[in-house]
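Give me structure tokens for this 267-residue protein.
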Amino acid sequence: MMASPVKRVLVCRPTHFTVDYIINPHMQPYSIDTSKAAAQWQTLIDTLQSLNIKVEIIDQQEHVPDMVFAKDQGIVRKGSVLLANFRYRQRQTERQYYRKWFQAHRFTVIDMSNMFIFEGADTLFFGDMLFVGVGYRASVASCEELAQRLGVDVVPLRLVDPFFYHLDMGFLAINPETAFYYPGAFSTGSQQLVKRFVPNLYELSTKAARSYAANSFVSGRDIVIPTGTPPDFKENLKQLNLRIHEVDISEFKKAGGGINCLINVLE
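Here you go.
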């Protein structure tokens, strides 16, 4: 079984992409080569378009360097968007720009209660369920409201390694029955949940996980992965009959974001 091909995505042009602060262990302040980042981003866009994916672009505003990570902004589903509640004040301004974009493009905008934090990169639909990575950027308390707002069953997965601070750093869904995950990113109990709900489960090695393998992007039979992932990961992808497209996103890794972080699926 293959995942459905992605039809349309939202990305943010990295006009003002920098690392000005530290809110995760990956961040390397003032180290971004902006020209290189722009070229890497364009290569990613070209790759997505080569897969017949329509790419919508929001322009980045000044003083919100992490705005480039469109996946974080919320959950898009059936013409609606549930906007993120960011934990860190450095990121909270981003939401107003995305709100305006979604409203201008006729999405129904839904807000969570202010008391609950969550970010889009901590959420992933797997079959009929929504997996939520809790512990760093999403609270356990947010899960009940996510279930109510979206009308789905929610499975919280506790993240225990700050290097894997978002769910999409340690978990990669290939299709409704298949996924990769890095056990060390999750608590023992959550590892058991993953094994229970994923029929065809592959373990990522530490080397693969730290190369941002889980932060790849899947569209049908195609997968866009970061350069530098180890051979065993790519061999597993080939065994699953996936077409591999490699893109260098080294500048974005300096901020703790990968390929999937840069893309929000609209449909």
